[in-house]
Amino acid sequence: MASSALGTCFRALGLAGRALTAIGLTAAGAAGHAADYSGPLFDAHLHYNEEAWNGKTGPHPISDVLARMQRNGVQAIMANSRPNDGTKALAAVIAERRTMGVTGAAGDITVVPFIRLYRNRIDYDNWFRDETIYAMVQDEFARGTAAGPYRGIGEFHLYDSANANGPVAKKLMQFAERNQLAVLAHVDDAAIDLLMAHAPKARLIWAHTGIGGASVARVDALLAKYPWLMGELSYRPGLTCDGGLLCPEWRALLLKYPTRFLIGSDTWINQRWQSYDELMQGYRRWLGALAPEVARQIGWDNGASLFLGGRR
Ligand SMILES: [Zn+2]
Questions:
Q1: Nearest Cα to 183, choosing from 211, 147, 141?
Q2: 76 with 112: CB under 8 angstroms?
Q3: 97 CA → ligand 1 middle, Å
Q4: What is the pTM of this model?
Q5: Are 300 and 40 contacting, i.e. CB atoms less than 8 angstroms apart?
Q6: How many Å lie between the centroid of ligand 1 and the Cα of residue 125?
Q7: DSSP designation for 145
Q8: pLDDT at position 74 over 80
Q9: Helices 189-198 & 167-178 angle (0-180, nearest 10)
Q10: Does 27 or 239 have the greater pLDDT score?
Q11: Is residue 21 very low, low, confident or very high in pLDDT (cuts 50, 70, 90)?
Q12: What are 49-68's pLDDT values in tens digits?
């Protein structure tokens, strides 16, 4: 009896042990594969450049790019293009569908248009001292788009941070500040200081939040120093680690400043349009491992409160 009871007891323990192991594995699995974020996305770095549409014969006509946004739950975009015609065409189609009451299609997507500084690739290296670009930006701003006024300028690039002190760079920062336009800037951390010195109250959105790999401590210090500075996270080196989840120090930074970050596709070449689904799924994955309210802030709310009056 006794030995049989003992045996039963051991068997029970064995079963319990296996059950606990199974639960333990399940819990670990759940932590490693939290459900992806399923809320709306605000794509805060989108280009609809000429080579995508190319006189309507390109590989990514408006219907194609809108379908990509839609199937990924992207409900608003900060759009700019080289030249600005791409943004204007996108804005016109969306505005038209909205006027016609088309929903469940492009009518559900809001365009936040930005003025691109580049008419062609040569302008990348010269815009900060080219007065004709300053004139072009003012012309565009006065005209606006079918979806409403422009809300920002950029994306612009500075490959040498000293050019942040170029005469046109300075004037554009001040123009943006005066007209409450946001600025999307692909620059290094040194240029952030220079640009902010021109226009301390400008809403500067740091494209890629330091694509050259500025340290997390440096990004932290800049966010603390400039309350209007936001970070957009495409291409940011060191952002994600195993399983596509945030690396620990980036996770800590995002949790420290949950209202200061945005996500973006950066469709600067057609290949980025081709991988648009994967890019958005990648964001949904790491957002899903954050607390739901933080995921929604970074995925949607921060962009919406900047540009849509917090709508949705
Ligand atoms: Zn870009």
A1: 141
A2: yes
A3: 27
A4: 0.87
A5: yes
A6: 15
A7: B
A8: yes
A9: 60
A10: 239
A11: very low
A12: 999 998 778 899 999 999 99
